Amino acid sequence: MNLKIRNVVFGIGVGIITVISIIGILFEIRFWYRVYPGINISGIDVGGQNLKQTAQAILRQTAIIKQIKLKWGVNEWYETLSNMGVVYDVNKSVEEALEVGRTGDFLKDFNSKVRAVTGGVKLEPVWSWDKNSVDMAVASVAAQIDIPVQDPAIQRDKTNQTVVVNTGENGQQVDQNLLKLKIQNSLDNWGIGTVDIPVVELKPKLTIEQANLVKNKALSLLGKKIVLQFPDNKQSWIINDDQLLTWLDLQSGEGKKSAIKDWVTELAQTVNRDPQNATFRFIGQGRVEEFTPAKNGVTVLQEETTDLIAGAMDKMVDGVNEQDIDLAVSYTPPDIKTEDVNNLGIKELIGKGESWFKGSIDNRIFNLKKAALSINGVLVAPGEIFSFNKTVGEVSQSTGYKQAYVIKEGKTVLGDGGGVCQVSTTLFRAVLATGLPIIERAAHAYRVSYYEVNYQPGFDATVFQPSPDFKFRNDTSNYILIQTVYDEKAQYLSFELYGTSDGRKVEISKARIWDVTPPPPDLFQDDPTLPSGKVVQTEHATWGAKVAFDWKVTRGGVVLQQKTFYTNYQPWQAVFLRGTKPN
Asked: In angstroms, rounded to a whole number, what is the distance separating the alpha carbons of residues 177 and 168?
């Protein structure tokens, strides 16, 4: 291209740019402080209008709109804008219209202007409402349309051991959130037209086939149960047929996992625990002042447990009467383990004994607690013989004990320290479970009800100062720590023995009971210190019996201890004192 042609092309280009620039300038002059052409606010053409004209156009429209029409079927409702707190903001609507093409971003503004001129730009008016007022208005309309459902239900007749399935009734409900969205869209378009109210049909009603299926499934669960076990702490939960019936999905007849999971979630709150670091503080003289064994943290695996229960429920529907399942859990180890905090070999729980004292008088509970806590934290050295009487010390009023009933010289009388024998009995059980050699043990003269709660007869040990005593020897290579667990609310006492397991295995047979003899006839004795007509029982009748159980301790096939514990319980006569003192 020669120079002459190049100059011509350049001149034409400059001319075109000049023309476009002049047109652009004239366009901007023409619409100075006016809305660009092609812009409308929900159908109101405001293109080319100045601020005042645009505002007047919006005001004319808002003056027309006073209410919104809602419709469902042949029913109509009219909600006024004032009742919903609706306010159209004229100034902001004008500002938004004027701002189109004037943001300061050249390319964006150029595109907006071209789009407005060639195809038009639709804006929505700016408005606001009072949310609470709208919620109330919508709820008021819904209340006139909603029909509550009657959910299907299983009713159990325990008398006839059968069930009745109520099929339920269908209903309908306004979708209030969707209705509010529709009202918003209507207000965006000046409230013109009719808002159709969205109504959802609710269909929980069972068909005859579904009802029969559910009834058959429910009947198959009657008299059955699931036993959920947590072996770590010997906890278990029995899920009986009443609970199982609530978990039936009445639409399908299957176990409803969402309901089962809700139950498992509540259970987890009682089982879950954080890891517990070990603590150990030795103060000398064979005693530990502070001891907390390390414990793993426990977390119930809720999804897995829910699946286990649902699976067990399916098997029971198919004919299995009882299902035993283990709780699904995960463990988190503590940062500090028991063996990390001492050098005495106190590493783990090696034995435990338990007893319960429900129904005890206050003085008995006081004595029991005092004696039990006096043993808490005691260390028994390797080879050492532990003496209950020596460890607990003198049991009398002078050492703080109170009077409660004790067995003395063939009678039940008030004496210092009544209840201490429950402590020796509980420790005896812990030593049996641990497999340590028992040096001295004496049984009670007659059967005591406290000692047969969750235990068989014969698992008791009586003590009295200075004798009989309860003694055992630590024949392990490490120290043994005695830890007291006392729960007055649960009326529960236990002793936990900690040390290092050496692999010994303890076998305890069931108690053998023979020569059961009835108590002698009740004895009534006149008591001149009691008012005439008053009767006080001082002894309770108890059957006599001979009891024995076998105890065997082995390690690697070698017998360490083997003994049969015999007890001869005497029949005990009920004794009543009959008042003879003149009134």
From this structure: 26
